[in-house]
Amino acid sequence: MRIIGLTGGIASGKSTVTAGFAELGAAIVDTDLIAREVVAPGSSALAEIAATFGPAILAGDGSLDRRALREIVFADRHAKLRLEAILHPRIRALAHTRVQLASGPYVVLVVPLLVESGDYAWVDRILVVDVSGALQQRLLMARDDIGAELAQAMIAAQASRAARLAGADDVIRNSGSIDDLRAQVRNADRRYRAI
User: Fold this and answer.
1) 170 is in which domain, residue-wise?
2) Are 155 and 34 in contact (CB under 8 A)?
3) Are strands 125-131 and 170-174 parallel, antiparallel or unpaired?
4) Where are any strands of DSSP class E within the chain?
5) How far is CA 144 from CA 138, 139, 150, in A?
6) How many folded domains does the chain comprise?
7) How far apart are CA 116 and CA 191, in angstroms?
8) Can you say whether the dihedral through the CA atoms of 20, 23, 28, 32 is positive or negative?
9) Rounded Cα–Cα distance for residues 10 and 155 (Å)
10) pLDDT, tens only, 108-148
11) Is 139 left (phi over 0), alpha (psi -120 to 50) or beta?
């Protein structure tokens, strides 16, 4: 089965595009969802994160306080690298297993950091959801209820727009219109079924 690696910057529209592929019958493996699984209370990953970054990253119920951790890792590149070293191997292994078990005309593997990681050589095509920097910042600030400074830091911590586009086999451009995104997903679906 064809494996399409779907990526894009934070708040680029990946979730909307992913939902569109799911509605059309594609199998979906989403590493953001897997990332939440691997840090569930009681998991070895959560224990390692707490040991590395301290108990302040835990919420009162013992779950991960994502906002507290995000503020740490987006302010310190070395902290981000430590977190990635804990999470990425676990996420990648589980994603690979789920892709192998998937059924459908093709599988969409959603990996926000696909270009940055370089660890998914087993995908057949890379599909980038592209968005302008200004729209991306507005969407991120609204989605996460954060200020411009943190939004900029979060965007800057990822691969540049140019780097993502350079690694793309296919591109879906997000101009802010849901109808336009859906039309582009339908076109991509037709292409992937024909490959």
Assistant:
1) 3-194
2) no
3) parallel
4) 3-8, 27-30, 107-110, 125-131, 170-174
5) 10, 9, 10
6) 1
7) 26
8) positive
9) 7
10) 999 988 887 778 889 999 999 999 999 999 999 999 999 99
11) alpha
Backbone angles phi, psi at 155, to 5 degrees: -65, -45
Sign for the CA dihedral angle at 177, 113, 155, 79 comes to: positive
The DSSP bridge partners found for residue 28 are 108
> What's the residue count for the chain?
195
d(CA 195, CA 181): 21
CATH number at 176 reads 3.40.50.300
Residues of the chain predicted below pLDDT 50:
none
* Strand arrangement of the beta sheet that strand 170-174 belongs to: 27-30, 107-110, 3-8, 125-131, 170-174
Q: Is 5 helix (H, G, I), strand (E, B) or coil?
A: strand
Q: What is the pLDDT of residues 153-168, one digit of tens each?
A: 889 888 899 999 999 9
For 118, which DSSP code? -
Instruction: Provide the whole-model pTM.
Output: 0.88
